[in-house]
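2 proteins. here.
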Amino acid sequence: MGNPYTIVLADDHALFRQGIKNILETVEGLVVVGEASDGLMLLDLLRRRTPDMVILDISMPHLRGLEAAREIKIISSDVKVLILTMHKDRDYVFSALSAGAEGYLLKEDADTELFAAIEKIRKNGCYISPLLSSEFVFDLVQASHKGELSSFSDPLTTREREILKLIAEGASNREIADLLYISIRTVENHRANIMRKLNIKQTANLVKYALDKGYILPSK
């Protein structure tokens, strides 16, 4: 018998976490070694314990799942990341994979696909929920035909792209905070992360990047 495969769960719904934990622990060799209800709590936990896999939701307080996925890979690139979410938007799938996640599983598929997802990722594969995979492949093919694959490698998270668009449209940090119902400090942190990821130091170049990516339309 080998070492147990250790998993940390991150979701802001305690009952859902408990349900997933109960399912996982019906399989010998899978052990849930930690739980977190938000992204910041998750990262704090990972600085003290290194599991084999983190299963996390996109929608969490304080630090969203896609942003947390990037930070997980910074803390330890060996930790596998499986996004378990209700979000079916194609952009979320691309953002999750570009953030370093090895899998994207819809919650509605979890009852039949959770173990398949874990096993595939455990064997160094990439897993996408059956409800999304065919559409995902179709979009990749279409993009390659149009020469748009570079858009799928955008290093920004969905939230960061949202903030970049507002910056490019001329919104102040206060206005962005009010529009998105977040603190100014959070906006400042996102802004700093955007500039770091894109290696951009001036707002004018942020606007150019947003134009190049099609986040905003050029003024006439």
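next one coming up
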Amino acid sequence: MDDVQKRIDELVKGNRVMLFMKGTAQFPQCGFSGRAIQVLKAAGASNVKTFNVLEDEGVRQGIKDYAQWPTIPQLYIDGEFVGGSDIMMEMYESGELKQILDKA
């Protein structure tokens, strides 16, 4: 595992709710990342840790390999890959996202 993958792994496993996105929670820099933040807020997520991939090209490319998922944003909960903004939206609408977030 190279340094970038190790760093990503530490972020994913070290934070209960981890979102890799373009921009920040306060200032998303793409519509999908903005929607991901809104979905997490609506589902009642707290202590969401975000990583702005626009500030680190290594992580921006490395995260795609980490989960074998080609797009950003990417959400991880309890060290597990959940999906991108479309999957998050579907899980929110079905109530599944709130259930996962509510687990202690």
